[in-house]
Design a protein that fits this description.
15% strand, single chain, binds coenzyme A
Length: 256
């Protein structure tokens, strides 16, 4: 098993789980961990045996964020690639589910924002408190949060350090679901179950088109959507989806 700085990657059949785990430090994410996370997501993305990835934290918290002290000694080059590394869940062609309980702050929230689905326990607290450290969220937070919840709410969170409760995360559309902590695993499993029954190639294409054209002009988005649809038309899963409907049986998607 690869030795990562403060997280581990485990496989259970077609599901890979990345667990941030730094006991006593609320799963702080080091600069090395960010690079390694990008590598891990890249590898899982290329692994045909993986159908979904879960990103979570150990010990009742997602993470309290980046390793604050290390920022002073970090080389400038490193700081300029923060957003690239933290975007790795978004680049991963597999569906990525953030399983969030407790603190989800700083880079933790930025990672969660780059995931496809956020499933939260009722005690989750999401936030981007960097301004209190004389910095700003530098790993995609200013951009993704404003796009997802609007400029006004993003300013409350980033400029006034407003913490987002699980209830608000649900109301704002950030969380797909909010459940009691004791039901969190079940809720995540439910999402994985839904996704596992679907075509991996269609899911990957949907994710790619949704992410790529989110802020592109409509005509570009529509064109890319059409091209993606055309590519999918030649897959066996497309044929299987149509044939299974016509034959009134459940589809069996192979990911080809
Ligand atoms: N980086 C490094 N260490 C961190 C950390 C972070 N982002 N967040 C917490 N820790 C460490 C603390 O230094 C402490 O370690 P210590 O006992 O060796 O001093 C330990 O985790 C527990 O944190 P503590 O502050 O004692 O817990 P708390 O329950 O009182 O407060 C928080 C929890 C999350 C409110 C508080 O830890 C906090 O504000 N953390 C920083 C959040 C942040 O600014 N994140 C963005 C970073 S860019």
């Amino acid at each position: 098993m690869t030795d990562y700085d403060g997280f581990r990657v485990e496989r259970d059949g077609a599901v890979a789980t990345i667990t941030l785990d730094v006991p006593g430090k609320l799963n702080r994410v080091s600069l090395a961990a960010r690079r390694q996370l990008a590598g891990a997501f890249g590898e899982l993305g290329e692994d045909d045996g993986v159908r979904a990835v879960v990103l979570t934290g150990a010990g009742g918290a997602f993470t309290a964020g980046g390793d604050i002290a290390s920022f002073l000694s970090a080389p400038v080059d490193e700081m300029t690639t923060l957003a690239f590394n933290v975007a790795s869940p978004e680049r991963c062609p597999k569906p990525v589910i953030a399983r969030i309980e407790g603190y989800c702050l700083g880079v933790g929230f930025e990672l969660a924002l780059a995931c496809d689905f956020r499933v939260c326990s009722e005690d989750a607290q999401l936030g981007l408190p960097e301004i209190g450290l004389g910095m700003i969220p530098g790993s995609g937070g200013t951009q993704r949060l404003a796009r997802l919840v609007g400029l006004s709410r993003a300013k409350d969170v980033i400029m006034r350090r407003k913490r987002i409760s699980a209830a608000d995360a649900l109301a704002w559309g950030l969380a797909s679901e909010v459940v009691p902590a004791s039901e969190l695993d079940e809720a995540v499993d439910r999402v994985i179950g839904e996704l596992s029954a679907l075509s991996p190639v269609a899911l990957a294409m949907a994710k790619r088109v949704l992410n790529h054209v989110y802020d592109a002009p409509l005509h570009v988005g529509l064109d890319l959507e059409g091209l993606a649809y055309g590519v999918l038309k030649s897959t066996e899963d497309f044929r299987e989806g149509v044939e299974s409907f016509v034959e009134k049986r459940p589809p069996k998607f192979e990911g080809r």
